[in-house]
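User: For my dataset I need records formatted as: sequence, then C-alpha cells, nothing else. Please produce one.
Assistant:
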Amino acid sequence: MGVISIRFNAREEKVLKKLTDHFNEDRSKLLKRSVMEMYEDLLDRKAISDFELKEKEGKARFVTAEQVLGQ
C-alpha cells in the first residue's frame, strides 16, 4: 500500500475540512473516493467518445431490453 503526502494551502485545507464534516468521512477516505469518482468519470467519457466515433462511422447498433435479456 502506498502512502502519499499532500500539501494543502489554507484555502484548500478549509475546503477539505468542510467536505470531511459534510460527508462525515476522514480525509483519507474522502480523497480516495474523490480519486475513484474522477477515474470513473474518465472511463465514462472514454466510453461515450468511443460510442460517438462508432456512431459517426455508422457502426453503432442498438438493441432492445428484450434482446439484452434474451427474451
